[in-house]
Structures are given as C-alpha cells and as structure tokens.
Amino acid sequence: MRKMRLRVILLCAICAAAAAFVLPLSLFAEQTKADRGKLKIGYAQAGDYYEFDYQIYQIGMALVKDHEIVSDRLARLSQGDSARDVWDALCAGKSDTYEFGEDGYFDLAAGEYAALSEEELQEALAEQIAEQGIDVMITMGTSAGLTVKEACDVPYMNFIASDPVGSHIVEGAETSGDPRAWAHVNDGVDKKALSVMDDIFSPKKIGIVYNGDDPEAYIYSGAASLDDYADRYRKKVVSESVSDEFEDTEEAYQTYFSEMCAAHQKLADAGIDAYVLTTSYLRLEDFDEALEPFMEAGIPVFSINSTEDVRCGALAAVEMLDYQNIGRFAADTLKQYREGASFADLPQQYATAPFLVVNADTMRRTGVKLPLDTLISASEIYGKYESENE
Question: What are the DSSP calls for 276-307, one per residue?
C-alpha cells in the first residue's frame, strides 16, 4: 500500500515537473507567434494629392504621441507638408518598433513608374517591395491601394479611398476578413454629402467631371454615388471626362489643367444648376481659374472631396474626414497588428461628425444666397465675411 502511495506521489511530481517545463515553452511559443517584432513599413501613392500629405503626416504624429517613434525632423513639419518630406522625416526618426524604408516610398504616377502599363507597374512594384523586405505597406487612395493589392502578398493599410469596399481594396466594411488587408472605411460619405447639397441647393441638373479612362474612377470620384442619388431623386446628371493619368511634368499638368477648364466651361454652357467637385489633381492655387466658368454663370460648386476646395473657391462642402483622429486610429491599428492581431479581424470603420463650410466671397461672386439657418450651422466661413466678423 505504501509502495502504491509512493508511486502515485512520484507520478504526480513527474507530471508537475513536466507541466512546469512545458507550460513556459507553450507560453513562449504563443508569445513568439503573437509578437511580429520590428516591422519595416513602406508607402505608396499615385500622384501628389494634399489629402495624402495630410493623412501620412497625422499618422506620423500619432506614432510620435504614442512614443513609437522619435523624430525631430517630423516635429519641424506641419500638416500640408508633402508626403515625401513626411516620409523622409519618419525614416530619419528612431524607433524600436518600426523601420521606415528610405527606398520604401513609391509614387506610382511619377518617375519610371509613370510610363509603365498596369501589369508592368505591378511587377516593378512587387520586385521593389520584395527587395526592400517590407512587412507592411501604407497606401493612399484607390489606385495605389488596388495596385499594391494586386502586385504582391505583402499586408497593406489603405487610406483616403472614397469607397474601399466598392472598389474591392477590402471586401468588408466592419472588418476585411483578409489577413493581409485593412482599409479605413467611412460608409456613405458621398451619399451624406450629396444629401446636404440637396437640402441647400435642390438642383435639378448637376454637372460632374471624372476620369473616364479608369473604371475605378467611377467609384472613387463619387460618380457612382451621384448617379444613385440622381436616380433616387429624379435629377439629371451631365458628365465630362478628363484623364488624370498623366506624367509628372509641368507640361503634362498644364495639359490636364486646360482640359479641366474646358470641361468646366462645357458644363456651365450645358445649363447645369449645380456642379459637384470630386477628386482631382488640380493644384489648389489653380482653383480660381478652373472654377471661373461656374462663377461667371452663377452656378454653385459643391465639393464632395474636401473643405480645402472651399477655401480655394468652391461655394460649400461637408467635411467627413478628421485626419488627426484617423491618424490615431491608424497608429492604434498598426500597433495591434504588430502585437499579433490579424488585419482580418481589426475594426476598419471610423466616422467623424460632418460639418459644413462655406465661402462668403464665392457667394458674392455667384450671387447664390444661402438660407440663414445654413450660414448659422456652418462650422467655418471663408472669405471677407469671416474676417469682418472675427
């Protein structure tokens, strides 16, 4: 009996010792599986666009505030500095958790990439991403998001895409369901903005310009949302097409600018009673001249792109993007991924409360009168009205 008891005690001791040895190993294995270690980050955009600049800056600032990176150069920049400058500042920073590749910045509409076919572009990008050993790509806009998605298997995060679900950058809104895909999703931005436009102007015939050479442009420009809105409320849409796929040269931009001005003149002559301004590559300093046909004809310009358009001459817009808080959302998501979470399961939706901005000088030029309650509800009024009432 005593021998049996000793055997039981000895067996228990052996099991306990084995458990004590195996358990730390299993925990270590779990920890190793979860911790992805230091991540090398790359960046892609297709053309210079100020919202790309704003967003990558705010992502960088969020990483600084979270103590994920220290960068004196980034501290000397501000929102509005170019994405290239922001990227260089991130590369020069110090971080135990992220490495920003100096050669990991790709502008897919510039340099050697500009002359390539879509297939050639994907092959060249895939080769560079592999050569740089990049772990995660940050992509800006629909074109860059789709190109990176199709080019390789490297995980990516996408921002500033009008409809990342509709354009298939990701397949779901709440979560992507794909371990390599994540995108910031703000459902129904265009629809909400168009609803505000209808409340203010009640237009019957609406003009729009978008890139007809690119099938995805129908989605990312908001043209699809405008058609849905028009069908629902029995409006007429008049559209013009201008290719925004041009080489990164001054001559190519001037050709694009001239074509945009001509398209705007055609729409103004067509008798539209509102123009919807969507994503374009117009330089902010060129807005005055580009929008002149609508000013002369007294046609309100409503932007579904950005409130920066209003500061530069559009009559009104609804701001739907809070770059700073989206930057914080991005930094938190990246941290969760680095610590072992899957992009497939991480939340993608972040929406901010919309706010209206108007341009008082444009109101005077066009002769468009806005209801008093609209002016009162505006979060910001650009122009002389603003300065006179400070």
Answer: EE-S----GGGHHHHTHHHHHHT--EEESS-T
